[in-house]
Design a protein that fits this description.
The complex is a heterodimer of chains A (about 120) and B (about 110). Chain A has about 120 residues and is an all-beta fold. Chain A contains no helices and eleven strands. In chain B, about 0% of the residues lie in helices and about 55% in strands. The chains are: A mainly beta (about 120), B mainly beta (about 110).
């Protein structure tokens, strides 16, 4: 069973640029959530994708967008990067069943630094 | 927005000691979860709680879902060096999307051998 994998692991961008982060969900999981974790903080929910559609969103501006593909993998796109976007971006997958709500399987994250 | 207050922020304990940490919320949650994060890794689920009053164990870990639905605690018995890491509580609000969890700021645990 393959776990959640994310790429790239580290990247550096400058203010105003755009970034795309990728995630492969765990085998058999059809739901993907994205989180932002600033240094010294807990993860914050960005949004969730189920059946290729966004079905839940946290308090993040529209320049944070995503996609889910038929194989359940997902992308997080951030436009017009700001310094405060520097963080660890975590992808988490779940099986999409009602029982097991909140039982997320996280990847190791993509560390984004915005200069 | 909703916030979780997690305490203590950090703990330094001797190997073999028991550990207790807790989490409180201003909102009612229908699920409480506890995750552990090691450096350079994503959080890993330790325990999930689904009913008010529920007490659940996972090896040396025990967690409880508070009766008011606004709090939870995690106990670790007989700590060992590999317990080092950051422990996060997380809550799921009724009606929220499945992956939408609210996390606390974490309790950093250090264990002296």
């Amino acid at each position: 069973e393959t776990g959640v994998t994310q790429s790239p692991t580290h990247l550096i961008k400058t203010r105003g640029q755009q970034v795309t982060l990728r995630c492969s969900s765990q085998s058999g999981h059809n739901t993907v959530s994205w989180y932002q974790q600033a240094l010294g903080q807990g993860p914050q929910f960005i949004f969730q994708y189920y059946r290729e559609e966004e079905n839940g969103r946290g308090n993040f501006p529209p320049r944070f967008s995503g996609l889910q593909f038929p194989n359940y993998s997902s992308e997080l796109n951030v436009n017009a990067l700001e310094l405060d976007d520097s963080a660890l971006y975590l992808c988490a997958s779940s099986p999409g069943t009602v029982r097991g709500t909140g039982e997320l399987f996280f990847g190791e994250g993509s560390r984004l630094t915005v200069l | 927005g909703q916030q979780l207050n997690q305490s203590p922020q950090s703990m330094f304990i001797q190997e073999g000691e028991d550990v207790s940490m807790n989490c409180t919320s201003s909102s009612i949650f229908n699920t409480w979860l506890w995750y552990k994060q090691d450096p350079g890794e994503g959080p890993v689920l330790l325990i999930a709680l689904y009913k008010a009053g529920e007490l659940t164990s996972n090896g040396r870990l025990t967690a409880q879902f508070g009766i008011t639905r606004k709090d939870s605690f995690l106990n670790i018995s007989a700590s060992i060096p590999s317990d080092v890491g950051i422990y996060f509580c997380a809550g799921h609000l009724y009606g929220g999307s499945q992956g939408n969890l609210i996390f606390g700021k974490g309790t950093k645990l250090s264990v002296k051998p």
